[in-house]
């Protein structure tokens, strides 16, 4: 066995006439210019060397190829382009096998699709997630995948950007064989025994004939989820094209659309989101701080929020101790958590063994002393400062000296809670979003006295939960609710200034929000915010602009969807513009002598984006948020902001 090198990132060994080419381009083996050039050089070598009978492509560790190098997008293209490398692989005169050791994503799967055989380790992940970056596969994915697995299955994978296990990909027909152990040895043996067999070139295969219904269904499902994004619709069109045109025509059209989308605003926004997600949760100076070991998580309060947190922690493999005040409440809490797990079983996301394993790690008790074993205790009790401070003072006496205490408060001041305890350095905020077992967003609140290793532990915990942690400082409502308040305030000002609720909602929904702001209010119910406004009335700045319309709606019993009336009315459950609300708004304007203006949808969106971005700038200036990208992620993952617009900070800056 002799070692060969073709570029900085491409090396190879020769074993019994089989050239095993290894791509090694950390961190994700992206198809950079050096990788592409190295692959071409390796193929040149294999072509010329008569002793080489077959080629295997593989990667080190748990990544085969993570895709095209996204950092190269927007820079002048460098030859050889990926489609050229892929055409060379497919047309190669000797058999080329992909030995898929780990993730084969985007361009990585496109390389594999052009190989004549695909073997994979069962742990590998397979997919064409390009639509998540606002683009379509640009190196043959839309043309070769349907030739292997049919149009309906290809639409489902490509237009949804779905990533599947190697086992699933094997069932679909993407992977020829799953290899449990010694993937490379198995691939070498198979390559040697198949040298004289004809090569199966994916691009030469006809697209298998699917009946029309599954294709139409996959098409409709994908477009419904796309919420106005362009890439999924283009992906569907390109897959359909594969069935009716030659490979060359299909590839040319795919390339044209790929380039167009790559240079679009939508793709720029989604790339921003991609990189913001990778940066989120990173805190300067914290890389070297070791987190504390967390295995047992205590959760005080097992209501809606607490039971969701418990389910998330059980899913991540933690032991969970839930605490309630009475045995009866503890039983109910256990039932709620069990109910969440049962729902996961019903929907096929969890099997019975997984459910039972989780329940085996759960204790729900009425005795707070059980928390003595916890490494981390999260409180999810009623959001009242006295209730929470008393609880934390009690916890101080129960938990171990090295245990971490976290508050899930949404609006209270965690510094005040911490100040009331004996060890404020072990207090951190973990602001979950409901339902906590589903929502990815988690605001990790770095309080004034939080110790660095406590913050590092909270981040490690949230990552193990599979959450997207955003670190923020202490302010009322943290990042999300502060921006949301500014957004809501501006929308209500606009109502006074002349826009109607349905006009604002229509503008927001056309922009990409799943639901307009006033429809969301109605769904959530108006009475809790009304009660808060009444509490705050005495301390409100009388000079500040205050819109009374929401109060008037509540006074008229219009508490939202459940009451059948709110900002809208709901005859037969259908959201309907109500002239009574319009009259009430007009009366409120007249009272303040406001002459209403009319607003276009674009003006509405611009004004709301500006309000959010201004508040975001204030959060950055105050040091509450570390990065504009963090603010964008909070609004996308917690408040329905469309990801393909990049978040309010990104979008406002591009207007
Ligand atoms: C494509 O392929 C287009 C083609 O169809 C056509 C071309 C003509 N490029 O996620 P991690 C960075 S489009 C450049 O934390 P993990 C990332 O920013 C692509 N950089 O790792 C981070 O940097 P830093 C289709 C990339 O182990 C570091 O790598 N492919 C790329 O948790 C580690 O990332 C995809 O969409 C990239 N492609 O997960 C797959 N990917 O350290 C995108 C990552 O500076 N990637 N980086 O913060 C992933 O899904 C995950 O990264 C992966 C590894 C599962 C691979």
Automatic annotation (TrEMBL):
Signal peptide range: none
Keyword Ribosomal protein: no
Residues of the 3-hydroxyacyl-CoA dehydrogenase C-terminal domain: 477-570
Keywords, sorted A to Z: Fatty acid metabolism, Isomerase, Lipid degradation, Lipid metabolism, Lyase, Multifunctional enzyme, NAD, Oxidoreductase, Peroxisome
Domain 3-hydroxyacyl-CoA dehydrogenase NAD binding: 296-472
An example molecular function term from Gene Ontology annotations: enoyl-CoA hydratase activity
Pathway listed: Lipid metabolism; fatty acid beta-oxidation
InterPro entries for this protein: 3-OHacyl-CoA_DH_NAD-bd, 3HC_DH_C, 6-PGluconate_DH-like_C_sf, ClpP/crotonase-like_dom_sf, Enoyl-CoA_hydra/iso, NAD(P)-bd_dom_sf
Entry EC no(s): 1.1.1.35
Superkingdom, natural source: Bacteria
Biological-process GO terms, alphabetical: fatty acid beta-oxidation
Subcellular location: Peroxisome
Catalytic activity: a (3S)-3-hydroxyacyl-CoA + NAD(+) = a 3-oxoacyl-CoA + NADH + H(+)
Name listed for the protein in its UniProt record: 3-hydroxyacyl-CoA dehydrogenase
Lineage: Bacteria, Pseudomonadati, Pseudomonadota, Alphaproteobacteria, Hyphomicrobiales
């Amino acid at each position: 066995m002799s070692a060969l090198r073709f570029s900085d990132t491409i090396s190879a060994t020769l074993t019994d006439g089989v050239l095993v080419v290894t791509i090694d381009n950390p961190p994700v083996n992206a198809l950079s210019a050096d990788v592409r050039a190295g692959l071409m050089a390796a193929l040149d070598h294999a072509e010329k060397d008569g002793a080489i009978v077959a080629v295997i492509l593989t990667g080190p560790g748990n990544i085969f190829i993570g895709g095209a190098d996204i950092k190269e997008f927007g820079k002048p293209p460098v030859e050889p382009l990926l489609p050229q490398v892929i055409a060379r692989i497919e047309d190669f005169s000797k058999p080329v096998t992909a030995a898929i050791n780990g993730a084969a994503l985007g361009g990585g799967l496109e390389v594999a699709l052009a190989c004549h055989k695909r073997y994979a380790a069962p742990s590998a992940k397979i997919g064409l997630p390009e639509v998540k970056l606002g683009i379509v596969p640009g190196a043959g994915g839309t043309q070769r995948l349907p030739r292997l697995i049919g149009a309906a299955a290809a639409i489902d994978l490509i237009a949804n950007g779905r990533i599947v296990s190697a086992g699933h990909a094997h069932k679909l027909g993407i992977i020829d064989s799953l290899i449990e152990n010694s993937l490379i040895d198995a691939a070498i043996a198979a390559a040697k025994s198949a040298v004289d067999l004809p090569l199966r070139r994916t691009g030469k295969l006809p697209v298998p004939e699917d009946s029309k219904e599954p294709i139409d269904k996959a098409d409709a499902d994908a477009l419904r989820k796309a919420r106005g994004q362009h890439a999924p619709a283009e992906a569907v069109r390109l897959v359909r094209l594969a069935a009716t045109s030659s490979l060359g025509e299909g590839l040319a059209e795919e390339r044209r659309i790929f380039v167009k989308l790559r240079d679009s605003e939508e793709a720029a926004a989604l790339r921003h989101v991609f990189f913001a997600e990778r940066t989120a949760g990173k805190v300067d100076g914290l890389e070297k701080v070791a987190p504390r070991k967390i295995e047992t998580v205590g959760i005080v309060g097992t209501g809606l929020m607490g039971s969701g947190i418990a389910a998330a922690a059980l899913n991540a493999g933690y032991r969970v101790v839930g605490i309630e005040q009475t045995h009866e409440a503890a039983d109910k809490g256990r039932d709620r958590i069990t109910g969440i797990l049962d729902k996961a079983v019903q929907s096929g996301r969890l099997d019975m063994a997984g459910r039972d394993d989780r329940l085996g790690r759960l204790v729900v008790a009425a005795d707070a002393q059980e928390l003595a074993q916890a490494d981390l205790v999260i409180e999810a009790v009623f959001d009242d400062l006295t209730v929470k401070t008393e609880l934390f003072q009690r916890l101080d006496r129960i938990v171990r000296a090295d245990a971490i205490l976290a508050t899930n408060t949404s609006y209270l001041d965690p510094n005040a809670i911490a100040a009331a305890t004996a060890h404020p350095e072990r207090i951190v905020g973990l602001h979950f979003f409901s339902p906590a077992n589903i929502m990815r967003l988690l605001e990790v609140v770095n309080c004034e006295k939080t110790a660095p290793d406590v913050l590092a532990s909270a981040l490690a915990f949230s990552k193990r939960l599979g959450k997207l942690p955003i670190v923020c400082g202490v302010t009322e409502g943290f990042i999300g609710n502060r921006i949301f308040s500014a957004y809501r305030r501006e929308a209500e000002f606009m109502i006074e200034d002349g826009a109607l609720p349905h006009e604002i909602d229509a503008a927001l929904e056309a922009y990409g929000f799943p639901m307009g702001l006033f429809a969301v209010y109605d769904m959530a119910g108006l009475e809790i915010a009304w009660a808060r406004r009444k509490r705050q009335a005495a301390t409100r700045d009388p000079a500040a602009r205050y819109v009374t319309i929401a109060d008037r709606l509540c006074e008229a019993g219009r508490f939202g969807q459940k009451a059948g009336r709110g900002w809208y009315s709901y005859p037969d459950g259908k959201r309907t513009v109500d002239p009574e609300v319009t009259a009430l708004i007009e009366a409120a304007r007249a009272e303040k002598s406001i002459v209403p203006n009319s607003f276009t949808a674009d003006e509405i969106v611009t004004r709301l984006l500006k309000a959010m971005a201004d508040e975001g700038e204030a959060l950055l200036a105050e040091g509450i948020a570390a990065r504009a990208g963090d603010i964008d992620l909070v609004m996308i993952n917690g408040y329905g902001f469309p990801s393909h617009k990049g978040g309010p900070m990104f979008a406002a800056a591009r207007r």
